[in-house]
Amino acid sequence: MDFHIYLPIAGNSVSIVPLLGLGVIVGFLSGLFGVGGGFLLTPLLIMIGIPPTVAAASDSNQIVAASASGTFAHYRLGNVDFKMGILLLIGGIAGGTFGVQLVKILRSTGNADFVIQITYVIMLGLIGGYMFLESLRNLRQGLSKVQNEKPYPAKPSLYVRIMKNLPAKTNFAKSKIHVSIFLPFLLGALVGILAAIMGVGGGFVMVPIMIYLLRIPMHVVVGTSLFHIFFTCVNVTIMQSYLNHTVDFLLALILLIGSTTGAQIGAKISKRLKADQIKILLALIVLVVMIKMLLGLVLAPHILLAYKGGH
Amino acid sequence: MKRDISVTILLMPLLILLCFSSSVTWGKAGPRATMTITPQRVTISTLYNGKTISVQAELPKGTEVALTCEGPENTLTLMRKGRICGLWMNVEELVFHKVPTLYFLQTSKKIEKINDHDTMHEIELGYESLCSRAQLEKKGEEEKANLFNQLVKLKESENLYSVSEGTIKITPAEDNSARMTTTFHLPPKAQPGEYKINLFQLNNSEAVLLNSQPVTVEQTGLTTYLSSLAINHGLLYGFIAVIIAIISGLAVGILFGSKGGH
């Protein structure tokens, strides 16, 4: 049976079953890796005929549900560092506000799309490549457990020295680190700027930053990242509804039925996997998205016009 | 002679009546045809997935016809893709005016078979005629034609534009007339509004309008309510969407937790 539902804001009808399946897959990735999944879902929604602006905004609405479900699941598992999450969020809001202004300046110079797409590909390539190689090395050498227990490498780098010298240090019990409150704020701001430029929630940038720059254990990273994404997407959903009227609630509702379930399954599986196994899977997904984007940039498009909107 | 005049006077009212009845059927300015469209009103409800529209018409025998379905004209903002440093990306914003949201054209025969020298453009039908009507900001005619061609490809990829030659069936009927039947599928992406169905007679070098009727597409029920809420009360709509998402997320979380989770 092929049930269709008409989406009033998207102005199109879609088949329900594939949409539910898409929700389950994205929710699963969300629960497993602590990413929102917008970078994956938005292009897929555009592919099935949803206008780009509606796809991006409705995606944020369904991420609210998936991240609420995922955060709750990880909270029950003891994987959410609320103190860390709130500091990252404050930094993210500040960085996001600055990033939006930066995009405005870029748009006025006419180079916005070029900068956005190049930043996207480079960031995805760097993050995915580094995570993949590092996790592969650890899995081969069986270092995963040892490294997760060590807060810093034996020989402190410049970054570690700066980190140690920052004032207002505090203890993050869940994350098992003792760092300055300015560090999560600054890193949150960096993610906020990148998220504003790239037009996505930034989960796939936030997760590696928490792993490599804040040195938080992988399972706490996933839970805390979901907590951060939840608030980011609540803000985006309300702002998009108010300013652009692009949130299709029916579309989000079908997606979230699948994604909330998927997020729970992902959260349970994440507990059973080793940190490096999770990292290497995330790295592969990030690299696949990067290759897809790169091919889109290199191969000549079939149609030389596109509707304005989306990312 | 007198008899002839009296016969003519007697027949005059009959001739006037005949002329009058003829003008009702075929029109003063040109030929006419009766056309029936089913349905004439399309309602978009929650389970809507497009609608098949059926068109029937009574024609004079030997007539070749074309049928168009045109959506309301609007302004379209598009991004043109171009190459920068070997990479394809959006390079320019284009604003088209007077572009129909939907355009279907069907004919009873291939145009070149009706008249050797005619083209769609010459009889003012098809994409070229749409291009002539459309306006593109800040561009010359030649560039407009190239870009409009890309716009047609984009619309065709969404099933919103199509040209199908030779798809209309014409069967002979009684009294030197013929019956025309065809159907087309109004896709779910067709926006609410008034669509014009035009039936043309294809002559040697022109398309003569035989009949024109509207088809109204409108939202009803839940879809109307949600659209209205999203547009007129955006903030409230946003809060409701977020609250429902949170409740759903937590409900599923509790459900999973109670099923023997950690």
User: How does the helix and strand content of chain B classify structurally?
Assistant: alpha+beta
Radius of gyration of chain B: 27 Å
- State the total count of DSSP E strands of chain A: 5
Helix content of chain A: over 70%
What are the segments of chain A in which pLDDT stays under 50 over at least 5 consecutive residues? none
Question: What structural class results from the helix and strand content of chain A?
Answer: mainly alpha
* Major interchain interface with per-chain residue totals: A-B, 62 and 62 residues
Shape of chain A: globular
Strand order of the biggest β-sheet of chain A: 1-2
Determine Rg of chain A (CA atoms, Å): 19 Å
Termini gap of chain B: 114 Å
Largest sheet: spatial strand order of chain B: 2-13-12-4-7-9
Enumerate how many helices of chain A there are, as a single number: 12
* Quaternary structure classification: heterodimer
Annotation, overall tally of beta strands of chain B: 13
What percentage of amino acids of chain A are in beta strands? Answer: 5-15%
Global mean pLDDT of chain B: 81
Give me some keywords for this one.
A: two-stranded antiparallel ribbon, B: 262 residues, 2 domains, 13 strands, 34% helix
